[in-house]
Amino acid sequence: QLWDIGGQPRFRSMWERYCRGVSAIVYMVDAADQEKIEASKNELHNLLDKPQLQGIPV
C-alpha cells in the first residue's frame, strides 16, 4: 500500500497513524517554497521522534 497524505497543518495529526506498520517513509517537500523548508524539516523530525516509528527507513 502507498499513502499520499498532504502536508497542510490539518493533515499532520494523521501522519503518525498512517506510518504505523510501514516498511518505509517517503517524505517529499516542494523545494520551490523556501519558507516552508525549515518547517517541513521540523515536522519530519517530530514525526520520526515517535517511538513506534524508530528504525523505519526514510
TrEMBL record:
Binding site for GTP: G7
Key words, A-Z: GTP-binding, Nucleotide-binding
Any one of the GO CC terms: axon cytoplasm
Keyword Nucleotide-binding (UniProt): yes
A Pfam short name: Arf
Listed Gene3D superfamilies: P-loop containing nucleotide triphosphate hydrolases
GO biological process, one term: anterograde axonal transport
UniProt cross-references to InterPro entries, sorted A to Z: P-loop_NTPase, Small_GTPase_ARF/SAR
Molecular-function annotations in GO: GTP binding; GTPase activity
Protein known as: ARL8A protein
Source organism per UniProt: Emberiza fucata
Gene for this chain: Arl8a
